[in-house]
Automatic annotation (TrEMBL):
Keyword annotations of the record: NADP
All residue ranges annotated as the Enoyl reductase (ER) domain in the record: 10-306
GO terms of molecular function: oxidoreductase activity
Gene source species: Dyadobacter jejuensis
Domain of life of the native organism: Bacteria
Database matches in InterPro entries: ADH-like_N, ER, GroES-like_sf, NAD(P)-bd_dom_sf, Zinc-ADH_QOR/CCCR
Protein name stated in the entry: NADPH:quinone reductase-like Zn-dependent oxidoreductase
């Protein structure tokens, strides 16, 4: 089968298209024939060696940590899936392997694909869903009636977070720019701020929750606009303990988790059309170097997906 692997850390020139054997399922695994695989920032961070200290991997290995496809084989201990099932998947970061025609993943790292959604659209859901759900429901413990600000609301994770928050009964404000402004309004966001034209910290106050998908100065300016007892959650860096104490807040850095058993309500919203998926850009696997370059340089205006 064709796959994209690396034999050493480096820039995008280390990506190679190779032909390797189709994997076999271990007892608690399923083998999935990949129909679509998406590109995420973590892909180039792992490729570059930036995360080598946290993820000790053996070369060569196949990149890719998100996709959708059809189960073709199940391990002897698997109980939830059978060959022919259509699934979405997010393998653990030690494993990965979705830049390939087939991948073997643990049973608890897949979830049924909504029937109303294509494989291509489904392939970009696991990471954004896992991140947004973990940040909002697990880390921020959002509640009906709260007011939340989402920084970086126009991206895949941001748009998923906006829709989960809206469906959960929150008043949602987002920062974005360009064509994302209209996209967010179409999704029903209550207020959107163009960060290139207005300073959110001068117009907002008394927020219950801030979800930061940007970091840096954006996070630093967010503490003062959250009411005492409020929550700041960031996917980019740990919130500053001194600032949290100064303003009487709690804070946490979100680590994306794929926990399919908790996603049933959100999957239902996807099935019912209450959550929309931003259309991805389609690339052939042979263009993997170009695809990662587009994501790494932040030139991609939507997620990039390899179709098989």
């Amino acid at each position: 089968m064709k796959a994209i692997q690396i034999k050493q850390y480096g820039d995008n020139s280390v990506l190679e298209q190779v032909d390797i054997a189709i994997p076999k399922a271990q007892p608690h695994q399923v083998v999935v024939q990949i129909k679509a695989s998406s590109v995420n920032p973590v892909d180039y961070k792992i490729r570059s060696g930036f995360l080598a200290g946290q993820l000790t991997k053996t070369f060569p290995f196949t990149l890719g940590w998100e996709g959708a496809g059809i189960v073709t084989e199940v391990g002897e201990a698997v109980t939830l899936y059978k060959p022919g099932d259509e699934v979405m998947l997010m393998p653990n970061f030690m494993q990965g392997g979705t830049y390939a025609a087939y991948v073997a993943v643990n049973e608890n790292e897949v979830t049924p694909k909504p029937k109303s959604i294509s494989f291509t659209d489904a392939s970009i859901i696991p990471f954004s869903l896992g991140t947004a759900y973990t940040a909002l429901v697990e880390d921020a413990a959002i509640k009906n009636g709260q007011k939340i600000l989402i920084h970086g609301a126009g991206g895949a994770v941001g748009q998923m977070a906006v829709q989960i928050a809206k469906n959960s009964g929150l008043s949602v404000i987002g920062t974005a720019t360009g064509e994302n402004l209209q996209e967010l309004l179409a999704l029903g966001i209550d207020q959107v701020i163009d960060y290139t034209k207005a300073d959110f910290s001068s117009v907002l106050h008394d927020l219950d929750v801030v979800l930061d998908l940007v970091g840096g100065e954006t996070l630093a300016k967010s503490y003062s606009i959250v009411k005492k007892g409020g929550v700041i959650v960031s996917t980019t860096q740990p919130p500053n303990p001194s600032a949290l104490e100064k303003y009487g807040l709690t804070g946490k850095m979100t680590l994306t988790r794929m926990e399919p058993n908790k996603f049933s309500e959100v999957i239902g919203w996807l099935e019912q059309g209450k959550i929309k998926v931003k259309k991805p850009w389609i690339y052939d696997l042979s263009r993997a170097q170009e695809a990662l370059s587009m994501v790494e340089s932040r030139k991609a205006k939507s997620k990039i997906v390899f179709e098989f």
